[in-house]
Amino acid sequence: MIALLLAVISCRGEPHRDFAAAATIERVLERHNGRLLSIPDVVGTAIGERDGRPCILVFVVKKTPELMKKIPSTLEGFAVVVEETGAIRPLGSGLSSPPRFQRASASQR
Known about the structure:
four-stranded mixed beta sheet, disordered C terminus
């Protein structure tokens, strides 16, 4: 009885990262990554966190109702969160020389 009471009390504490779940979500994403990336306008995937729990992030060029129908809301029990990012290109693509930066003056900051 005391052990049960202690277990209930410990579950009410602050949310903590479940490292076993994190390892599992990596395998889930591995299994589904190819299918997710084959959906037109999906430009990337990642592991993230939502409400203190691990989730699968799907990055898209533009969120549309048609696209949202093609992306599952969960995968093997993990929430799937879709984020609109626009097109993603490799750093420096289309540049003939590295970008140059200027220091902003105090009035520009």
